[in-house]
Design goal:
The chain has one helix and 13 strands, in the order H-E-E-E-E-E-E-E-E-E-E-E-E-E. With 205 residues, the chain is mostly beta strands. The N terminus is likely disordered.
């Protein structure tokens, strides 16, 4: 289980007062991170050039985590990537010319808010966007149990075909496991392998 990343109110106050880069929190997203049936407000605030404060308001307390990134101008996205009724949050880490890169965050009573790792310990990152000559997107589908998440990343080469991969992940026991990776080779822009709908990862209500 990832280590607990809970930040107390005093620590947060120091972080906010210690930098001129702090900005107002963005409008809240809501995500039922603790699975109690109550949508919890989720806010993201830039506290330094490369750090943000992620805050979730549970029924009886706020929980905070300092997260990497410089994209607090973008709202977090509520998802349920495994369909278990406990929502996860896609936290924008960086914004490119046409692509937003997110890290996946979850909550447990033991760990607090934590960044979901891949099996090798690297952060689980998901990209959305791509522009005219690239595709980055994600979507969810039926899994055993619940849901799996497909992440698509491909680029158009000089021949006009798209090259890349479609990776299917299963989030379980605090870790995102790669179920399988499907190469994308010489695909047309309308190839089903390049398609995924982020709306299919929306929380179950």
């Amino acid at each position: 289980m990832p280590r607990k990343l809970l930040v107390g109110a005093a620590s947060v106050a120091v972080l906010l007062s210690g930098t001129a880069a702090a900005s107002a929190a963005q409008p809240a997203t809501t995500a039922d991170v603790d699975g109690d049936g109550r949508p919890d407000p989720v806010e993201l605030q830039q506290i330094s050039a490369d750090r943000m404060l992620l805050r979730v308001g549970l029924a009886d307390e706020f929980v905070d985590a300092v997260v990497p990134g410089n994209a607090a101008s973008q709202p977090p996205v509520a998802v349920d990537v495994n369909g278990d009724g406990f929502d996860e949050v896609l936290v924008p880490e960086s914004v490119g010319a046409n692509t937003i890169t997110y890290t996946v965050w979850a909550y447990s009573g033991e760990a607090g808010l934590f960044g979901v790792p891949l099996r090798d310990g690297a952060p689980w990152r998901i990209a959305e966007g791509g522009g005219a000559t690239a595709v980055s997107t994600y979507g969810c589908g039926p899994g055993l149990p619940g849901r799996v998440l497909d992440s698509v990343n491909a680029y158009q080469d000089d021949t006009g075909g798209y090259q890349g991969s479609r990776i299917t992940y299963q989030f379980a026991y605090g870790v995102a496991n790669t179920v399988y990776t499907t190469p994308i080779r010489d695909a047309a822009r309308d190839d089903p392998m390049l398609r995924a709908d982020p709306a299919t990862c929306a929380p179950l209500r």
